[in-house]
Structures are given as structure tokens and as C-alpha cells.
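During the second half of the funding period, the structural biology subgroup turned its attention to how the target accommodates small molecules. The most pressing case was nicotinamide-adenine-dinucleotide, which had performed well in the primary screen but for which no bound structure existed. We therefore specified the complex as follows and requested a full 3D prediction, including the ligand pose.
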Amino acid sequence: MKKSTSVVRLGIIGLGNMGSSHISWIKAGKIPNLELTAVCDLKQSKLDHYPEYAHFTDYKQLLKSDLIDAVLIATPHYDHTTIGIAALKSGLHVIVEKPISVHKADCERLIAAYKPKGKKQIFAAMFNQRTDSIYQKIRELVRGGELGKIQRVNWIITDWFRTQAYYSSGGWRATWGGEGGGVLLNQCPHNLDLYQWIFGMPDKVRGFCQLGRYHDIEVEDNVTAYFEYKSGATGVFITSTGEAPGTNRLEITGEQGKLVMEGGKLHYTRNEIPMSEFSNTTTESFGRPASWNVEIPVTQKGEQHIGILKNVTNAILHGEKLLSPAPEGIHSVELGNAILMSSLLGETVDVPLPGAKFEKMLKKLVATSKPRKKKVVKTATVTDFSKSFK
Ligand SMILES: NC(=O)c1ccc[n+]([C@@H]2O[C@H](COP(=O)([O-])OP(=O)(O)OC[C@H]3O[C@@H](n4cnc5c(N)ncnc54)[C@H](O)[C@@H]3O)[C@@H](O)[C@H]2O)c1
């Protein structure tokens, strides 16, 4: 196939829920100048759904096929590292699904393989929630100093409800050996990424994980974590796949006021005088700063996966700035690893986390991993999954 400079030729590896969703968006023409030319899956039955593209069962053959300029890796997470390293070394542009790897040491291995050496090579991660204008606005307000010095962050993100059928739909899911973790590694990479994108990485983490509390799984499905920053700021992060209806409420307290995100809305209660200044200057014992209520308009829901694919295509063709560079994906993995490690050790852990120590711990869990009791059940068909993002 002839290489064009105005179109990016894409190959997708892994044609499950996520890979097939990407295909449906590209097929529908939602990403200008992105052309799918080849697909790869270990299972021929998955490939058979897409007779119009070149087929590969071995990703290495796809990488050296000369049919693609970029590759999107949508396999189970452990393979993101192996396939990602091979893809980067082959010089292709690479988009990797979240999480970029299962644990910090693997993230480091993957990122070390990215050596563009002056030549343009794009390496992006599918953190689609970065396209949401509500999170972009929160980031702008926090990082721009509108809230003043941050005192406390509370994020309850429990609207990741998953059924037993979901967990039973794939042998790799929710096992130490197949997935390497639970809600922290499958659903929450998005929130942990946004958390660090907005607030930066904490210095200390204390985690409390309940393993298989709501489902017949061996990994965590209910989590409470406490974060501490050198600045004195603290954070609490709560997540679960076993609560219905769940909550997505982010509350940020700063010297200048309180910002609350809930139900797709952003409400800011702004102090006329910053808290410390008021506290240190007033003669009143029980006074508090006067405040204004501000409803911050949030114009649109982000384009999600389509937005990231558009951004990557434009980055390759026109040098557009990447919204979600893959090397930043190490932070969400490290946070998730730190929460789990702290919970297993029963103590607070420091960040940066010793990646080799966590890898050793995870290997022990993999070695003692027990197969799930419930048998694998068949769930929704390949074309249904993309609708779940609307
Ligand atoms: N960004 C998002 O919103 C989002 C949503 C869901 C899943 N994901 C991510 O996408 C990835 C896949 O998840 P899924 O739910 O689609 O899983 P899945 O089990 O539905 O699909 C995985 C597919 O990969 C194939 N596969 C496995 N190993 C392979 C290999 N070495 N080479 C080629 N094909 C291989 C399997 O046969 C299967 O068809 C995960 O990392 C997950 O975290 C991201």
C-alpha cells in the first residue's frame, strides 16, 4: 500500500470491547485522515468480523508489514509493555490503551523504549477523559491559582459499577496473573490520571483495598486511599465497582474557596478574603469569610476516544500538541500501585514508589493466584461496547 503524507494508516492490535469500538468510530469516518488498514488479534474469529482490512494473528508481523504508520494497542494490560516496546522500536507512532502498563517497573521499561532521536514519533495514551471540558476547567482553576493554596481534595468515584457477568466475561479479567489488579488498574486509571494531571503526585499514600468484596474476584473492587503532600495538602480517593447508584463527586478546598464537581456541574464558593488571611486578621471568634456562589459554565462533554484519536492524527500530520502523552501514564500506574502496596503492607508508602519492590510483591500475588470459581459467561457482542461511552 502506498504511503500518503496526508493520511495516517493505522493498525489495531486487540479486537475486543475497546479495539472493536475504535474500529466502529474510524469506520464511521469520525476521525478525518485516519485510515484503518490492518487489524490483529490472536483469535481468527475476531478478525473474521473485519474482512475489509489486512489480518494478522502475530503482532510482530503487523509491525513489519509496511501497511501502517501507527499502531493502537488494545490488548489486555500486561501486553501493553511487550507490544508497546516492539512497536516503539519499529519506529511506528504508538497509541496505547490505559493503563500504559500494569506496574511502575514495566512503565519504565516501556518509556525507555521511546527514543525518537529527533525524528518525529508520536507516543500517546488513551486517556480519553482528558478531553472533558469539566476536567480541563478544574485543572485550569487549580493550576492557575484561582483556588489559592490547595488544602484538601476529596474524590468519590464509585460510578464504575460492574456486574459479575462483566468479570466473568474474560479469563484475564480481575486476576493477578491476567490483569494485575482490579478497579485501580482497569477503571480508575482515568481518574488517577486526572488526579495527578490536576493536583500533581502526592508524597505519601495510605491505601485500604478490599479484595473481591462485591464480586467473585481475587483483586480489589473497593478502595479508600489517603494522600499527603509536602505542602500539607491532603486527599481522599474512594472508588468501587460494587455500588449502585454510584457517585462521581470531586470536592477541592483551597484558601480561596471550595470547588465542587458533581452531576456534570461545577460549583465554586469563593471566599472574599482567603481563609488564612481572614483567620489571622479578624477579631471575631466565630466569623467566617464572606463568600460568593459561582456556577461555572461547562460547555461541552469531551469527544473522548474520538477526540484523542483526532489529536494523535493531527499531532502526526500537523504537529498538534498531544493532549495525552503516553510517558505521563506512569503516574496513574504508580498511584494505583502505591495504594495497593500500602494496603497489602498495612503501612503508609512514600512516592516515588520503589518499582522493583512492587513488582516483586505483584509476582508473589501472581504465583498464589487462584482460578475463579464461576465459569466464564458470554456477554454483549463486539458492536455494543462503543455505545456504552455515549
Ligand atoms: N480507554 C477506555 O475507555 C477503555 C475502555 C475499556 C478497555 N480499555 C483498555 O483496553 C484494553 C483491552 O480491554 P478490552 O475490554 O477490550 O479487553 P477484551 O478482552 O474485550 O479484548 C482484548 C482482545 O485482545 C486480544 N489479544 C490478547 N492478547 C493479544 C495479543 N498478544 N495479540 C493480539 N491480540 C491479543 C484478545 O483476543 C481480545 O480479542 C485494556 O487494557 C483496557 O484497560 C480502555
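Two results from this model are relevant to the next phase. The pocket of nicotinamide-adenine-dinucleotide is lined by residues 13-19, 40-43, 46, 59, 74-77, 79, 97-98, 126, 128, 170, 186 (CB under 6 Å). The first strand starts at residue 8 and ends at 13.
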